[in-house]
Specification:
By secondary structure, the chain is α/β, with parallel strands linked by helices. It is built from 16 helices and 24 strands. The structure holds 2-aminohexanedioic acid (UN1). The site of 2-aminohexanedioic acid has 10 residues, from loops.
Amino acid sequence: MAKKFRNFINGKWVDAESGETFENRNPANWSELIGTFPKSGKEDVEHAVEAAVKQRDVWANLPVPERGQILGRAGDIMVERKEELAKLMTKEMGKVLKETKGDVQEGVDTAYYAFGEARRLYGITSPSELPNKTAYTITKPIGTAGIITPWNFPMAIPSWKIFPALLMGNTVVFKPASDTPATATKFVEILTEAGVPKGVVNLVHGPGRVVGEAILEHPDIGVISFTGSSAVGRRIAEVAGKHLKRVSLELGGKNPQIVMHDADTNIAIEGVLWGAFGTTGQRCTATSRLIIHKDIYDEFMDILVKRTKELKVGDGLLKSSDVGPVINESQLKIVLNYVEIGKQEGAKLLIGGNQLTGGKYNNGFFMEPTIFTEVEPGMRIEQEEIFGPVLSVIKVSSFDEAIEVANDVEYGLSSSIYTNNIIYAMKAIDKLEDGITYINAPTIGAECHLPFGGFKNTGNGHREGGKWPYEVFGEIKTVYIDYSGRLQKAQIDIEITK
Ligand code: UN1
């Protein structure tokens, strides 16, 4: 019997009011049912928000270091259960075990950051323009945060959002992706075990267009944090805009790795293999374009093809696997369709391009690591986020051309350049229109204490990681204290002139 999972509302595990459920299966072995989950509706979101609103004071009145201590404890529990959590995550979303352990670790790191931040959360103090008057800032919670997360980092991404939201004193309504509801459930269990009081974090499973939409529209949700596609992000921003809600969006990427002719070829090859095919290419930071200088092209591509052929695709639970399955059938179809698009556009399918079938592959959604060459700037496979193990290779003749190609997309999340020439490296840092630029390292692998997010259509200007999300989840209050014993008029009693 598959395990029956529930929503978590006001400290109780409950079914959807409709009683409806959906299934969650293992993408490496579709016959394995992870569990059934409530297919929630608007009414379930309403109960969750009601609980979250009711518990606001309980949570916000705790001193910040006390809230931080609870979050730190959540990090400790994640450390203790890392193995078990990683296994569950691999089963429900496919990426290989060493990567799911990394995902849990990113959650741990974020928890410990929150623990430390609890003893900072600095405001500013400032002189006043008037005598016997002083000014400083404090930060108050917004109220209740709506957190909507994707399946590719099922523990790390909820951590990036929920730990800061909670530390800032907000209560939370959390809607995880329907492909990773079990990891999300574990996350909420851990928070509860760590001491987060009832009603402070509420978990509602179900489809985005129903549950997500109800969260967006609810007047008592003051801030939304979302990671996912640019199409959905745009929709979220529209609804949030209508209600004047704050919204933080982390969206798509079409991340380039540039390799200059002077680069260390072997390191650059290892970089692109990891960036393009790690997590089966299903990261918003994945390397989906290799922009390579013509002088090293032939030699580089020969080794890259050889090394790509050596990658072992398989169940992420097996030690031998380098690349796990694609998340589900519909995503596999989207990726395979991009292979057709690439062929029709005139790119050359150099290696891969097919679903893997037969034997151990029969029950899952596996795909060959795929490389297109002769890709021209402007082709759809060069412009659009594919979110699968597909790499487009573009040959260029100069550094300037490499930068031009790299920037000529609607996204701007992460970029990389392999070079031993300091001038190329420094110019690339200056010119690449991305929120993250790596020198001699792949486009993936951001660390949790540094800002994470992108330029252009990758988001709406906010950053996750480090202290930045704490700004997203707080309302700043400026305090003026006048101890002059009389009415002082700013801008009038003192005119500052040249
Ligand atoms: C994502 O793909 O949405 O930088 C997040 C990285 C990871 C996070 C990726 N630390 O690749």
